[in-house]
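Worked example

This section walks through a single chain of length 418. The input is the sequence exactly as stored; nothing has been trimmed or padded.
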Amino acid sequence: MSTGSVRTRVYIFVAVIALIGAAAYFTAPYWSDSGGAALASSGDASGDGPQADEKGKEGEEEEDIVPVQLVTAEAGAISSYLSATANLRALREVEVVSQTEGLLMQLSAEEGDFVREGQVLCRLDDSQLQIRLRSARQKLAQAELQQEKARIRGEKAAVQIRNTNDELERYEQLYAESLVSEREVAQLRYRLDELEHDERVSSHETRELAFRVDELQAEIEQVQLEIDRTLVRAPFSGRITQRHVEKGQTVRQLDQLFRLGSFSTLYADVFLSERDAALVRSGQNVRVALGSDGETAAVGTVARISPVVDQETGTVKVTVQLAGDARDFKPGAFVRVHVETDSRSGNVLIPKRAVLEEDGQSYVFVVREGVATRKQVQLGYQTEGRAEVLQGLAGGEQVVTAGQGALKDGSKVKVVEG
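Given that input, the structure is written out below as tokens.
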């Protein structure tokens, strides 16, 4: 190819490029306007325009608002408590045992029954004892008859002795006057000796028979006591908590028959440290709550405090007495005992659930005009549901009790009903 043809082709290419550039230059305003309109339309359809930006900001603001529940901090009274756990016990609870042997013939009480003092709980067979009682009474009657005969013989001998003495004195005077013989006087003396001997024998028999009568009377009393023991009676008024025997069972002495408890007063024995026990006084108020639900509660008082410290545990035994109307409480129930040691009034009280802990400090969130503010507080006495605020909070302020976990200082809030 020649040099001239190459140059011709180069010139033609440059001219084409120049024409394309000129055409683009003259048509640019049209494409710019239409393209901008298209872009604007596309932006509005996709939501990326100004209106979409405003809606997005409103959504973000709604997401930043935290729903909370509030309560008004108010002044009130609160007490300090020492808490411990225990099991309730009855005033008295004993095993009723058999004091004799026999076949159980009758049951008169069942578990759960309330019985009065002296009421018969069951009866044992006493037929053999009744036979022994009749035999002893017969022997006693015979002994008393023999005793009476011996007494009569003694009285008769005493009368004869007095008469013989009078006659002997008279014969001795006659003998002195030689009107009777010495032999007649000797016979009277011999007769007097026999009568005195008979009197001594009668007196001895009377004493022996008196001992026999006493012995038989004691035997009768013993048999009667054993018969009485076949009737098993309640030693005090209370409720049968357990029955250990069945009708027809052979019972031996000291066998357990029933378990009886007096529920008129219930007690709880708690064990406090020596330091805590020093704060307790007899007569202090006590709150006792059932450990099963924590809601059922009764009032009571400190009945007594042990004067000694247990050497093994270092604790002091404190006995709490429940009020007589604690009907929902039963012996053996697990309870939580709260002994009131002090009481204060006038300070601000808030629900305990409103308090948060962080780095050993307590704080709450207070709401004013829809904004939550974090406040550090100093707490005093606390119960299961309330806390006393000594510093950091004033009465009448609105305190967050639910939803504070999502709050920060300055968070916007929305109050919802509990």
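What to look for: The helical segments are 3-46, 50-64, 127-176, 182-229, 274-277.
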